[in-house]
Design brief:
heterodimer, A: mainly beta, seven-stranded mixed β-sheet, four-stranded antiparallel β-sheet, 11 strands, about 0% helix, globular, B: mainly beta, six-stranded mixed β-sheet
């Protein structure tokens, strides 16, 4: 399977704990995006990378959230000191630049539940 | 006001019906536009890009009106399998995508 993969698929954690999610993009894609989605809403942009550079970060991304893409391949999203309001589906997507640019392909998501 | 707005529906239509969804966006500098389909508790899947000249893919037709800042999706001859949430997506610059909250379609036998 050469699509976008995300791990874990589900995560249940207690409030105050730290969690880390991983995303592996489609191998030839140089852009990687993170979104958060709650029930009844569309995906909400968090941040994106082009290769290893983090080019934009949403104002919604508090300092408890950090994302990395150290070698321009996989990415991690860490949430520190989780809060119940962090419960959501965290989606990763990847795309190329140029050509059919910015058509994003999504992974299956990581569903986070903070108790 | 949200940057990208869609009628949430739900749209309940019989099989074989034609249904149209609209989406409006507020940023006139928006550069690229897409429709995605999302099934319940699944990830969004790209349905089609939307070009200025309009484009068609089988039963699906997408159109863009830059002057009025809206995008439309027309589905002809609806199938039961078309039941899903349809998300309008606008790229406001080279990197950031803004999603609408989606329009829910239920096609009934």
């Amino acid at each position: 399977d050469t699509g976008v993969s995300q791990n874990p698929r589900h995560k249940i954690t207690k409030r105050g704990q730290n969690v880390t999610f991983r995303c592996d993009p489609i191998s030839e894609h140089n852009r990687l995006y993170w979104y958060r989605q709650t029930l009844g809403q569309g995906p909400e942009f968090l941040t994106y990378f082009q290769n290893e550079a983090q080019l934009e970060k949403s104002r919604l991304l508090s300092d408890r959230f950090s994302a990395e893409r150290p070698k321009g391949s996989f990415s991690t999203l860490e949430i520190q000191r989780t809060e119940q309001g962090d419960s959501a589906m965290y989606l990763c997507a990847s795309s190329m630049t140029g050509g059919s640019s910015y058509e994003q392909y999504f992974g299956p998501g990581t569903r986070l539940t903070v108790t | 006001r949200k940057e990208v707005e869609q009628d949430p529906g739900p749209f309940n239509v019989p099989e074989g019906a034609t249904v149209a969804f609209n989406c409006t966006y507020s940023n006139s500098a928006s550069q690229s536009f897409f429709w995605y389909r999302q099934d319940c508790r699944k990830e969004p899947k790209l349905l089609m890009s939307v070009y200025s000249s309009g484009n068609e893919d089988g039963r699906f037709t997408a159109q863009l009106n830059r002057a009025s800042q809206y995008i439309s999706l027309l589905i002809r001859d609806s199938k039961l399998s078309d039941s899903a949430t349809y998300l309008c997506v606008v790229n406001t610059n080279a990197g950031k995508s803004t999603f609408g909250d989606g329009t829910t379609l239920t096609v009934k036998p």
